[in-house]
Amino acid sequence: MTYSIRPMVNEDIEQVNEIDREAFPTQWPPANYRQEMQNKIAHYLVAYDDTRIFKYYTPFQKKQPNKFLWLFPRRNPHHSPKTPLLTHFYIIGFAGVWMLVDEAHVTNLAVRQEYRGKGIGELLLLASIDLANELKASFMTLEVRASNVVAQSLYSKYGFAQMGVRKGYYLDNHEDAFIMSTDMLTSPSFQEHVVQLREALKKKLD
Ligand SMILES: CC(C)(COP(=O)(O)OP(=O)(O)OC[C@H]1O[C@@H](n2cnc3c(N)ncnc32)[C@H](O)[C@@H]1OP(=O)(O)O)[C@@H](O)C(=O)NCCC(=O)NCCS
Fold first, then answer.
1. Between β-strands 139-145 and 103-111, what pairing exists: parallel, antiparallel or unpaired?
2. Active site residue 33
């Protein structure tokens, strides 16, 4: 199986919303990824499975009842009554980073449930660290639910340490957020740590 990472594009949004709903079902307000694609400080990455495709209807096809679609197939260049779907890469996870001056703030990180525990979360976090380096960030930060021990474990593994608590930060259940931050990204100890983790992940995914 091959997993790859690339920047998010508009065509990914339907699948990203699907993953978001699965990963953060109670989040309020829900993330608006279409808006995020216009946000100058936002940088989103997706992980996809090279061996699978995702089939989807265009918005036009979704809005129209089928009986009209097959009567007027030429209205939609993609439509044929037998093959009404478009295809796209199968997105298995995504991550978002906001660049705030010299701070790279991880806004989201989620992996499709069926793909969890295989190293995809790590792959996305590593790609976000690479992105932060490319964008010349000095350090990375994030907020994570106090109860989310899985994500905290992933972040700790990559050198994020708890720096504080935002009381009642999450609007859905008033849960606290832990604020986590890396050391300086250019520090030799952080870089050496990332080199080792990258090697280990490469072996795991090969
Ligand atoms: C958090 C999340 C992104 C992890 O993705 P994943 O692909 O399953 O994680 P990986 O397989 O890459 O595992 C990486 C590390 O995460 C931690 N981890 C993963 N699954 C875990 C589990 N079931 N229990 C405890 N730690 C776990 C471990 O530290 C693991 O490293 P290890 O393999 O050396 O033990 C995924 O669980 C998810 O999408 N959760 C819902 C959304 C979410 O909570 N996002 C974080 C918001 S701040």
1. parallel
2. no
Q: Which atom of ligand 1 is nearest to the CA of 157?
A: 29
CATH number reported for the structural domain that contains residue 14 in this entry: 3.40.630.30
Atom 23, ligand 1: which residue's CA is nearest? 150
Per-residue model confidence as pLDDT tens digits over 137-163: 999 999 999 999 999 999 999 999 999
Q: Which two tokens stand for residue 175?
A: 């849960």
Nearest protein CA to atom 39 of ligand 1, as residue: 110
pLDDT above 80 for 124: yes
Domain span including residue 31: 3-205
69, 76 contact by CB (below 8 A) = yes
- Is 143 considered catalytic here? yes
Buried/exposed code over 5-22 (b: 16+ C-beta within 10 A; e: otherwise): beebeeebbbbbeebbee
Confidence of residue 106 (pLDDT cuts 50, 70, 90): very high
Query: Helices 188-205 and 120-134, interaxial angle, to 10°?
Result: 140
- Please tell me the total count of domains within the chain: 1
Tell me the pLDDT tens digit for each residue of 2-14. 899 999 999 899 9
- Residue 74: pLDDT band (50, 70, 90) is very low
The closest-lying atom of ligand 1 relative to the alpha carbon of residue 113 is: 39
